[in-house]
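ok so for the tutorial part 2 we go from a plain amino acid sequence to predicted structure tokens. step 1 is just haveing the sequence, like this:
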Amino acid sequence: MKKKAVKKKSVKTVKKEVKRVSAPKMPVREKGLNFMVQINDPKALRKDLLEALREVIIFMQGYETFRKVQEEKVVTFSKLRDNIKELNNLIDNKLRKFLPKGKLKSIGEEMKVQEEVEEQEELPRQVSILRTEPKRENNELDDLEYQLKDIENRLKKIQ
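step 2 — the prediction. this is what the tokens look like for a chain of 159 residues:
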């Protein structure tokens, strides 16, 4: 009896088994039925399609011009905003140095007072209210006239 020599695999020569993952398979397209459609007037259909494409292109050109106008509008408004800020800064920083400071009220407040007086005239009044209102208006007018004369006197002194 002969014994066959059995070779033992050494630890170094053992290869690791690597699992291979295949890419997902593409679905197989089933061949469908091919249908053919007969067009009665192919030239007219082509003409209609080309006219529709022409209209789409004209519309797109119009949209592009509209978009350019909108962009110009945005740029113009941003320039205007910058110019207004610059003017306000010039007025606040430089012009106010040369103008005299007075005790004048702003025009908006005067308009509000006039509107209030008109509203009060519409309401039924008592006799005492009628007497106090004209006096206050005269006092405000007198104050304004006094301030105006004061400013004119200052101007005369400067000249």
